[in-house]
């Protein structure tokens, strides 16, 4: 698929067909994720791959808040995905990398960082997963894990305390009835390029 077409087609899919995903495609998504840029080549990301019915069911069991989605539509659709990938990031990996001799910030002071690049870089890696999904003709949705459920998630999957989940990505074949987003994009217009690009000087 042409790259510009991948960009245009990317959207969040919230309902999936009852079909497995070829493990080789998931391999490719995760390999592409590791090609994302990272500050100092720190590569402080990690990815928890859940692609068996038991693991996927456990994910939903430990991350779904009580009284969530009272009408059941969102959860029903999202739980139909056969694959869940959880991108994680390690702040320590970045602080340690920039305390190395070729960087020299030996105090590991977070105040030196203009923004928390451990999140930025893991976010870019996650976008490469989402773009690869489109290129392979599949669907995906990125969403957050409720903070009150993160400890349960860690315990269920043995995630070290040094790694923070950014959220999760459901992956699967789009359900035939999934004809478009019912989320915010269905209620809000996409901002025009001229509204968000300021060339040379912001002004106004």
Automatic annotation (TrEMBL):
<keyword id="KW-0560">Oxidoreductase</keyword>
<feature type="region of interest" description="Disordered">
    <location>
        <begin position="170"/>
        <end position="189"/>
    </location>
</feature>
<protein>
    <submittedName>
        <fullName>Nitroreductase</fullName>
    </submittedName>
</protein>
<dbReference type="GO" id="GO:0016491">
    <property type="term" value="F:oxidoreductase activity"/>
</dbReference>
<dbReference type="Pfam" id="PF00881">
    <property type="entry name" value="Nitroreductase"/>
</dbReference>
<dbReference type="InterPro" id="IPR029479">
    <property type="entry name" value="Nitroreductase"/>
</dbReference>
<dbReference type="InterPro" id="IPR000415">
    <property type="entry name" value="Nitroreductase-like"/>
</dbReference>
<feature type="domain" description="Nitroreductase">
    <location>
        <begin position="7"/>
        <end position="173"/>
    </location>
</feature>
<comment type="similarity">
    <text>Belongs to the nitroreductase family.</text>
</comment>
